[in-house]
Amino acid sequence: MDGLLRSVIKTVRRRLRADEEITVEAVTKELGYTRQYVSGRFHRTTGRLLSHFLKEKRLEKAARLLKAGNLRVSMVARRCGFDSENYFRQQFRERFGMSPRQFRTTGHLRAIRRPQMA
Q1: 3-110: CATH architecture
Q2: Taking residues 47-73, what's their average pLDDT?
C-alpha cells in the first residue's frame, strides 16, 4: 500500500476516535500536503475520491453513534460533520437504505461494509 495512503487512513482513524473534523482540508493540512496532491494520489491509488471516502467514514461513525442511542439524530449529524440535517438524512438513507431513525431501531452495524483499504 502506498505510504501516503497509509498516512491518510491512519489520520482519518485518529481523527474519528478523537471526534475531530474529518474533511479533505483538515486531513490534508494535518499531513502537510495540498488538497490537490493528496486527493489526486488517493484517487490514482484507490480509484475513489477522497471526499467520498471521508463521507463514508463519517456515515459509518454516525451509524455507530445511532446504535449507541444516546444522541438525537441532529446531534449525530453535527458530531459527524454534517452541517445540514437534511443532507445527512439523505446521505445516510443512500448509504444504508433507511433513515437514521429506522437504522437506530432496526438496522444492524454489520450493514457497515468496510472498504478493502481501511
Answers
A1: Orthogonal Bundle (1.10)
A2: 95
